[in-house]
Structure formats: structure tokens, C-alpha cells
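Issue 218. Parser rejects a valid record. Input:
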Amino acid sequence: MTLYRHFILLLADMHVAAGALVAQQAVQSRVNPQVLTKGQQATYEIILPAGGGRGIGGTLPRVPGLEISGNASFSTSARIVNGNVSRSITYGFPVRALRTGTFTIPAWVMEVGGRRYNVQPTTLKAVDAGVAYKDVFDLSLDVEDTSVYVGQRMEGTLRLLVREGVNVRIVGPPEKASGEGFTLEPLEQNSWSISQTQRNGIRYDQGTVPLKLTPIKSGRQSLQFSQTLAVRVRGSDPLNDFLGRGVEKQIELETGVVEVDVKPLPTTGKPASFTGAVGKFEALAEATPAQVRVGEPVTLTYRVSGDGSFERMQAPVLDGGDDFKVYPPKVGFQPGSGEKSFEYLIVPQREDTGGLLEVPFSYFEPEQGIYVDLSRRPMEITVLPAPEGSDIHLPTQGAKPPQSGNLKPSHGTGVRLLDIRLEPGRWQSIGQSSVLTPVFMGTQVALLGLFAGLFVVRRQQLRLAGDAQLRRRIDGGKAASKWRQQAESAAASGDAPEFLDAALRTIQESVGRHRMETQAGALTFDDVRVHLQERSADEAVIDSARQLFEAGDLQKFGGADAGRLDLPALLNCLGQVQEALN
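Output the parser choked on:
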């Protein structure tokens, strides 16, 4: 009996020792990937021998700067080595780094299927994107000139390096990460050019895309671009990786910041014909047809070609005086074409005016820092007197003249016409007529009102179509009201550039609606002053208009400090001017 008792105790001790051995069994852990970017999600993996289950116990460690989720994934795998099969279970916990640095997830005890495992500590490193992909990816920005004028177009190149063998896909076009003081011309589709290069003995695939930028603000301006890439990484399924169906992860690369010194355009020597063109241009003026009569239209085309900021180029203003009636031009421009045209319709008012108008135009040449006059006059045409006694022949709708010769009598169809019966027949009652019911009468009144409304609308449309001046006054009034609302909104938010642009457009539209010969957007202060004087406006109103135009010119060409502008006072000036114009 004593021997049996000792045997039982020995078995119990062996069972406890085995349990203690299981409790002391250590398992490895890792973070995949071990180096990640701040904010990127990785997986905290714990690999156990086969025999576990889905039920997990224990307390996940807390690490400052890390976010470890308890929502674990579960997968099994098997390996065959020399005919021996080994199975394992992998538990994955999502982990995310909230800041950069090196982190250690400490050891802890994990319970699975009633068993306890000592999970060994592991480390991971979170870095910025530029550091994580150093020598793998590089995005840089090169500009030809870092000292330019407002409105001067800049040439730049965005350069992307990808280490050979890394599978990436470019997602979307590059974007400005900073650079509100610049405009970017739209990029063409598939604008990246791919080549191969080497850097520090490492082979790279190189992609370049040309950039065309225009500074719109003076002073020290920062410029930076970003580009999103989709990188193919290894997934959890080796078969998908083998078949080329790996997982794509998007990363965003940024260039370094490029500082550009933007100079305002000089106000000294600026001609009145300058409308915003900056660059180097040539011009040609031509007129067709070569011979017209007084009152017949002539098409005068002014073409500007070259290299520069075509978007900022406004239409030249033509003054026909008493000799010509000039209509607003039709502007033709395609981005990237290197040419812009202005097509005017002019009508000679007297003969012997074949020496047509000179088109006033000038531009700023940034290399020499001067304004260049590019005014051109087309070749002389012949203007003949208007024809006298011109008759307009209208077709008459009379009876056809009798035909000569023997005419055959017209024969009927043989159908006998019934005599008209003058006496009424028998009267019969058909009940109450539906004509006088309220529903019928209401329907007729509604239809009558609808037709009357359509008649008035159509008459107004025909009137506007035939009266260009009336249409111009109505459209100009609507445009002035829209720009006035935008000016008030910009003044309330303290946006000086937007306010000045909207305020000047308000005045231009208010004046332009009365001037058929000039495009509203091309009106200057002198035009507004003359119009106000014609309406007997006092000097205070004219001075208010002068303040707005001067502030707008300084802001447009980079010489004004937006923070020092008194927007409420300028808004009051706008109200005085518009009241006088209305």
C-alpha cells in the first residue's frame, strides 16, 4: 500500500512538472514589417506550435506611442522538411505607430486552449516616409530660375527615382504640397517619361515630368510637390505573390521645399497698352476682306505667338473713334499652343478709311526687365462709298399671269355638290352642355394664360436677339450684381485679392453694359472716369473709383501689402461708385 501511494505521488509530481514545463515554453514574436512609417499599420505576429485554438487569453501589453488592437487574426501553416511535417499557428494583432521612434513590445503570457505561453519581446522602428524609403524612392523638384517676376512663366522638372526591381505604379498626377503663390498648367495625360540611370552605383528607373508654373504673388514663395505611388509588397499568401497578385500599399512622397524670389513688375515705364503679358512674343495683324463698302464688316485679327504667360494676357482695347464701330473681340487660345488670337469685328463708318486701326499691345520682357511695344497695324484695305438707292426685292404672292395659247377647260371630278340647306331641321335636346362647366372654363383660362406667358417670353427673346444693346445692358446688370455679392463676401472674410478682383469687375460690368464697343473686362480707370463724368458724378465718386483701381493694380502686380488694406473703406468706395453708375 505504501509503495502504491508513492507511485501515485510520483505520477502527480511528473504531471505538475510537465504543466510547469508547458507554462515555461517560450514562443517567438515579431512585427511585420519591422520598419514602418508613422501611421502605417503593421502586424504583431505570435507563432505557436500546433494544438492551439481560437480562444485567446492574457493581457496585451501597452506601449506608449503604439496602438495594438486585440482583434487578432488566425492562420495555420505546415512545413515538410525531409519528410517530417511540422505545423504551427500564427496569431496576428494589428499595430500602428503613432509617432516616430524605436519601440519594444515586452514579454507577456498568452493563454490559448488552456495552455500558457511566454511570448518573447520584440522591437520595431517607426520612421518618416523619406527615411523609410531612402535609397529606394526619391522625389525631387528642379526649377530653372529661382528669381523671377510676377507673371513670368517658370520651367520645372519633377524627377522620380525608383530602385531597379521594385514594382510600383504611379497613382494620379503630381500635386502641389505647398505653393499657393503659383499656378500650374494642366499636365498632359501620360506625361511621365521613363528612362534608366545610376546613382552611387545603384541602378534606378527614372521618371520625369515637365512642369510649367506661373508666380502670381510677389515676395519669398515656397514650392513643393507630392506624388502618390502604389508599391507591391509581399502578402500573407505565397501563391498570390508567385502569381503576381501581391498586395499594393500606397505611399506618398514629397520633394524638398524650393524657395523662389518673386519680384513685382516695375511700375515705372509701364505703357497703357500693357495688359498682363510677361515673356517674349511676336505679333501679326491682318484684316479681311481687302475691299468693303461703308457699313460692311471687316475682320481684324491680332495674333500673338511666343513663350510666356498667355493666360494672363488680356485683349487689347481698340478705339474706333468716329471712323469705325468696334465690337468686342473673339479670343482664341489653346493651352500649350504658344499662340493667342483676338478677332475683332469693325465696321467702317465713312469712305477712305482703309488705313485701319492700330492694335495697341505691349509686354514685359523679364530677361532685360523692360516693357516692349508690340503694337501692329494691318495692311491697308479699300473702303468704298455705300451704294445709293439699294432696293430690297421681296417675293410677291400674286396670282400667276395667264398663260398664252389655247387653254383647255378645267373639268370637275364628276362628284355632284349638294345644295346648301337653309332651313333648320328638327331640334333635339342633348342635355346640359359641358362647355359652360367650371372645370372646362378654368382649363381654358389656364391654357390662355400659359400661351400668353409663352408669347411674352418668346417676344422678349426675339427682342434680345435683335437688340444687342439691350441684351448687353441686361447681361451686364446681372454680372455686376454677381460680382458685387462676391466682393461683399470677400471683404467679410478679409480676402483682399479676391475682394479687389470682384470690386473691379463690378465697376467694369456696370460701365460695360452701356458700352457696346468695349469688352467689360478690358475697361480701365480712364474709361470709368469718362463714363462717370458723362453722368455728372462728383469728384468724390471719381476719387473712390481711382482708389479701387490703384489698389487693384498694386495687388495684381505684386506691390501691395494685403494686410494693410482697409477693406471696409474700399467696400464703401465701391458702394458710392456703383450707386452713381446705377
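Fixed in the parser; the record now loads. The domain at 274-384 is CATH 2.60.40 (Immunoglobulin-like).
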